Known about the structure:
The protein is mainly α. Helix content is 44%, strand content 11%. The strands form two sheets. Strands 3-4-5 form a three-stranded parallel β-sheet, with helices on both faces. A two-stranded parallel sheet has the order 1-2.
Amino acid sequence: VDILIxxxxxxxxxxxxxxIYGRLLPYAGYENYPAYLKNLAQNKNIMFMSGFENSDIGxxxxxxxxxxxxxxxxxxxxxxVQEAFGARTAVIASNIGGIPELISDGVNGLLFKSGDVKxxxxxxxxxxxxxxxxxxxxxxxxxxxxMKENSEEIAIIYADLASRVKCS
Length: 168
């Protein structure tokens, strides 16, 4: 989140606002992280929103133009990216872990170098000055499978693999 705040501090237009959702919590070794984030936010268009119920994610995503996922972890398939696609919300995200397997840069979202404030700033600026790109990204978003569809597909793959195993 600090990478996102640093990048957004460099945004000089009033055409964009950054809403940070979720509870700000300290974590082991960095207990003052919530205060650090609040002090870091120098742009008047940065707002800290409260936490929310998971059932409200669709409502929140439907009210934003772009979701920014500034991950620094090697996540395999962040659910929030899939939820954004399900809500037809454009995504700017780090090019780390499994995220590039979900987002095709320039097709259904934008990728930036993980941890790179300047690169993220550039992607945000590009989106602000080219708002039509958001609709283009929506056209490139994949259909998100339901849990049932996904589990049925995996069961078929396992059955196929199991049928190929030769027992002696």
